Amino acid sequence: MSAQMCVIQLNSQYYQRSTKAFEVVEELLDPCPMKGTITGQDILNEVKHVIMKFNLSLGKHCGIRTDGTPVMIGKHKEFTSLMLKYVSHEVITHHCIIRQQQLCAKTLQMKHVMEKVVSTFNIIRSNGLNPREFQAFLTEEGSDHDDVIYCLLAQQSGHSCQIRFPT
């Protein structure tokens, strides 16, 4: 079974589908810069525009995954509630688990731990040889990961949503 997915993430819209071999293929569909105060209606209008522009079938829409920001969730004027009113069938909604973990970690603010993590990250990234040596070390150790990535998450810095359309 293959699927299509229209994704709005950090104000860009992507086309994402899974093949019969369950490989995920993603392409940038339509960058949509949104400035100023963004409402749920603004996001819904952008999603509807992309759905029509790329001829995606709204009847096959089966799920919405959000990052949990206030403009995305709610009962009345937020994107999720407006999208649920817009479609004529049942749609599953849930929040991205990874985003929840990031927000939880940011809220805990374990400064003493994060200082060590950032310091270690900066040492690894300080010159061109260190990252390659570290990647080789991870490979030798049989790590599930081939690199270390650090990203400071600005809470509610962008609005993220994935809408799934199975085909």
Automatic annotation (TrEMBL):
This is General transcription factor II-I repeat domain-containing protein 2A-like.
